[in-house]
Write a structure and sequence with these properties.
elongated; TIM Barrel; about 350 residues; 2 domains; two-stranded parallel sheet; 14 strands
C-alpha cells in the first residue's frame, strides 16, 4: 500500500494521471492531508465515491496518532510514535525501543515548538547522548516525520518545528528535504522556512545541500571548539572537523533573517573553562551567529556532570563581552526524559496518559 502523506504535489499529480483521476484531485488531496489533517479517504467528501474507493484499495493516508504520552510539571509534553506499522512490520514488544521514536511539544508564551525525530536511534555515536547509545535502527520516512507534526495534540497551534529529536537529520537528508518541501510549499502547509530549524553534527556535503536547497535556520552541534577534544566525545569530528565546517559556513550570507546557531552543551570539567571560551571566540569570531549554551542532563547511561547555572552565566557573559551573541537555552521536560539528549523511544518508559 502506498503511503500518501509526504507526497509532493507533483507526485500526487503523477499518481492521479496513472489512475485516470482528474488532475485537480492532486490539489484536493494536498488540502485534505496538509491543511485539514484528514486521516481517512472516507472523510474527503469532495472526492467522488469511485476515487475514494480506488484510493482505499491502493493506498493509506498515513496519519496515525501517538502510541503514548507524558506531561512534565513545566508543561512540556512528550509523545511516543510507533514507526513501520503501515509498512507491515511486526508489532514490537513493550520494551523494544527500535521501532519507537519520540517528539517533544514545548509550549511558551506566544510560541509553541515541536521537536521531532528523524531516525530510529542514531549512528553518530556521541558519547553524551542517550539516543546515540541505542545504536541505529533505521531512517524514518517523510510520512513518519510529518506524522509527528500533524498528529500531536495542539498541532494546529504550532509556531515552530525543530529537527532536534532522535537521529541526525542530515543522515536522512532526502526525507528531511521532502518534509521541508511539504511544510513550506503553498500546496502543502505554507509555512515560512523561518519557523523551521534543522540541527546537525556537521555532515558537510549534506549541510551544503541544506543551505543551498532550503531556507530554514541551521543549528550545528558544536560542544567543544578544539577538534581533538571534540573528537573524544563526537566520533563524526574525524570525518567532518569542526574548523572545516565553520570555514564552509563562512562562505554563505547569514546577515538576513536566516539564522545559524551553534549548540554548546556544557560538561563540568570538560568544556566549561576560560580556555574553551577563548577557543569559541577564535573559532566563531566574525561569523554572524548565536551560541546556545545547554545544560547537560544527567542520565544513568552517562558519567558526565552538569555545570551549575552561575558558572554557565559567567561563561555566557564572557562570550558576549568578547563579541559573540550567546544565550542559555531554557531546560524543559527533564523530569520526563524529554530534554536535550534524553530521548530514548522506549515503549516501556512512556505511558499513555490524557493531556
Amino acid at each position: 500500500m502506498d503511503v500518501l502523506l509526504g507526497y509532493t504535489l507533483s507526485q500526487l499529480q503523477q499518481l492521479c494521471e496513472q489512475e485516470g483521476f482528474p488532475k485537480f484531485t492532486a490539489k484536493q488531496l494536498c488540502d485534505w492531508m496538509y491543511h485539514k489533517r484528514m486521516a481517512s479517504f472516507d472523510g474527503m467528501t469532495n472526492l467522488s465515491q469511485k476515487i475514494r474507493a480506488r484510493l482505499k484499495e491502493t493506498a493509506v493516508v498515513g496519519l496515525e496518532g501517538p502510541a503514548g504520552s507524558q506531561k512534565s510539571k513545566d508543561g512540556t509534553s512528550k509523545y511516543l510514535f510507533l514507526t513501520g506499522a503501515i509498512a507491515g512490520e511486526e508489532t514490537p514488544s513493550e520494551n523494544d525501543g527500535s521501532r519507537y521514536v519520540e517528539s517533544v511539544y514545548i509550549p511558551a508564551d506566544g510560541r509553541n515548538t515541536l521537536c521531532v525525530s528523524c531516525q530510529r536511534g542514531c549512528r553518530m555515536g556521541c558519547r553524551f547522548c542517550v539516543t546515540g547509545k541505542q545504536g541505529f535502527h533505521g531512517n524514518l520516512t517523510a510520512a513518519e516525520i510529518l506524522n509527528q507534526i500533524l498528529s500531536v495534540p495542539g498541532s494546529d497551534e504550532l509556531t515552530n518545528v525543530v529537527f532536534m529529536g532522535m537521529g541526525e537529520p542530515l543522515d536522512n537528508y532526502e526525507a528531511i528535504r521532502r518534509t521541508l518541501e511539504v511544510l513550506t510549499s503553498d500546496w502543502g502547509m505554507g509555512w515560512s522556512p523561518r519557523r523551521l530549524t534543522v540541527s546537525t553534527v556537521g555532515i558537510t556535503p549534506m549541510l551544503v545541500r541544506l543551505i543551498e536547497e532550503c531556507e530554514c535556520h541551521v543549528a550545528v552541534s558544536l560542544h567543544n571548539p578544539f577538534g581533538d577534544e571534540r573528537g573524544l566525545m563526537m566520533p563524526m569530528q574525524k570525518a567532518y572537523p569542526i574548523d572545516e565546517v565553520v570555514a564552509m559556513l563562512r562562505r554563505y550570507n547569514w546577515h538576513g533573517q536566516r539564522r545559524i546557531s551553534f549548540e554548546y552543551t556544557m560538561f563540568g570539567g570538560i568544556n566549561d573553562d576560560r580556555r574553551h571560551a577563548d577557543g569559541l571566540v577564535r573559532l566563531l569570531r566574525g561569523l554572524p551567529c548565536r551560541v546556545n549554551l545547554i545544560k547537560f542532563h544527567t542520565s544513568p547511561e552517562t558519567d558526565f556532570r552538569s555545570v551549575p547555572m552561575p558558572e554557565m552565566e559567567r561563561f555566557r557573559d564572557y562570550l558576549n563581552r568578547e563579541g559573540l551573541t550567546c544565550t542559555i537555552r531554557a531546560s524543559r521536560g527533564e523530569d520526563i526524559m524529554a530534554a536535550c539528549g534524553l530521548l530514548a523511544g522506549k515503549a516501556g518508559v512512556t505511558s499513555c496518559t490524557s493531556l
